[in-house]
Design goal:
- The chain is α/β, with parallel strands linked by helices.
- The chain has two domains: 3-45 and 281-386, Aspartate Aminotransferase, domain 1 (Alpha-Beta Complex); 62-277, Type I PLP-dependent aspartate aminotransferase-like (Major domain) (Aspartate Aminotransferase, domain 2, 3-Layer(aba) Sandwich), CATH 3.40.640.10.
- Helix content is 45%, strand content 14%.
- The strands form two sheets. The chain has a seven-stranded mixed β-sheet with strand order 1-7-6-5-4-2-3, with helices on both faces.
- Strand 10 (352-355) and strand 11 (358-364) form a beta hairpin.
- The longest helix has 28 residues, at 3-30.
- Keywords: Pyridoxal phosphate.
- Belongs to the threonine aldolase family.
- Pfam families: Beta_elim_lyase.
- This is Threonine aldolase.
Length: 393
């Protein structure tokens, strides 16, 4: 194939992918049954309606914020209280919050090396921001689809100033360690005189798995980052929580990084709504995700699909992975076509290649998913499998 032909084929593949994505979003929006209806799938008018719900969570007769005062400070105080920290600072993005946190710690420890997992968000999704922007150096403790162990932390051959743990580890399947394992990992870092930072973008939903309140979980770390949109359905935004002195320094760096936004009240109000409405419901989402995961597993087994996997087998949060032995484009097309024809969307996220002849997708359960019974999940699996092509042995 000539270079021109290769470029044409790549462009055609991108067009097909874009077309499938548009169909998937349209099918998801019109489907009568889904596991989650995310805010970012809604229209601007629908999103603005969220702000009307803020009347019960904050005094809307208060003056709007200017450079981080007023309602922004109210959110920061609330987050610090929930996580049991001395203070918290609002950031427009988690990428910025974590860069700032870890460069502040590097200044205190005198060591810019950050030990983390190879699948952690900064390594996979942030274009080397830690090193390119923050002047930090990352050390990969492991690439296994689990959190680092205490032995891996204790025996790592290079010194590091900070250990960063993503809880849960999204790209490994939203996995969490056992509570005892987590405390041992934290202690192993302490024994090396390293500080511990939690990438807690989805920490909010970890309480069921750990069997501990948020304050106790966050209390293991020296600093914690949390997101407001990944589980709480806010417009965006993040917070860095920790000791008062660290947070004050982080606010100075927030300004230097361009995060001193003139007015932030729409995002902040949506975060307060999420803390009020969604946070209390997360435990029930996690428990029902386990029902859905078991029904998916049983449904694929009954349909005779070889090597179908739900990972983790018992979800640690309300998000998990499904693996099937087909090509991603095949599964993506069948998922969309099934939703278009039945009004039931079993898989609303894209399918990615997981290996030769394997693909994986993420399943997210939110309020809409609470309506599904196990039998309805199995019936939807049967409808989906009926549209898959026969496999050649």
């Amino acid at each position: 194939m000539t270079e021109t032909a290769q470029r044409d084929e790549q462009a055609a593949e991108e067009d097909r992918g874009a077309g499938l994505r548009e169909r998937r979003l349209a099918a998801h929006r019109s489907a009568r049954r889904v596991f989650a209806r995310f805010g970012f799938h809604r229209t601007l008018r629908e999103r603005l309606a969220v702000l009307a719900e803020a009347d019960g969570v904050h005094d809307l007769d208060q003056l709007s914020d200017v450079y981080g005062d007023g309602v922004v400070e109210a959110l920061e105080t609330k987050v610090a209280g929930l996580l049991g920290t001395e203070a918290a600072a609002f950031f427009p993005t988690g990428t910025m919050a974590q860069q700032v946190a870890l460069r502040c710690w590097a200044g205190r420890t005198g060591n810019p090396a950050v030990a983390l997992h190879a699948l952690s968000h900064p390594e996979v999704h942030e274009r080397n921001a830690f090193s390119e922007v923050g002047g930090l150096r990352t050390l990969r403790l492991t690439s296994e689809p689990r959190l680092p162990t205490a032995a891996e932390v204790r025996d790592f051959e290079e010194p590091f100033g900070a250990l960063m743990l993503e809880l849960p580890l999204r790209d490994a399947g939203f996995v969490l360690p056992a509570w005892e394992e987590l405390t041992e990992v934290v202690q192993a870092a302490r024994d090396r005189d390293a500080v511990v930072h939690f990438d807690g973008a989805r920490l909010w939903e970890s309480t069921v798995h750990f069997g501990r309140p948020l304050e106790e979980i966050a209390g293991l770390a020296d600093s914690v980052y949390v997101s407001f949109y990944k589980s709480l359905e806010a417009f965006g935004g993040a917070a860095l929580a920790g000791p008062g002195e660290l947070v004050e320094e982080a606010k100075a760096w927030r300004h230097r990084y361009g995060g001193m936004v003139f007015q932030q009240f729409p995002t902040v109000l949506s975060a307060l709504v999420g803390l009020d409405r969604e946070l209390p419901r997360l435990p029930e989402y996690v428990l029902h995700a386990r029902v859905v995961a078991a029904a998916l597993r049983e449904g694929f087994a009954a349909a005779g699909v070889p090597w179908a996997r739900v990972h983790p087998e018992v979800p640690h949060t309300h998000d998990f992975q499904v693996w099937l032995p087909y090509e991603p484009d095949v599964l993506g097309e069948v998922a969309v076509r099934t939703a278009e024809e039945t009004g039931v969307m079993l898989f609303g996220s894209a399918w990615d290649r997981g290996g030769p002849g394997l693909a994986l997708t993420e399943v997210h359960l939110r309020a809409a998913g609470m309506e599904w019974t196990a039998e309805e999940v199995k019936a939807a699996v049967a409808e989906f499998v009926a549209r898959l092509p026969e496999q050649v042995s």
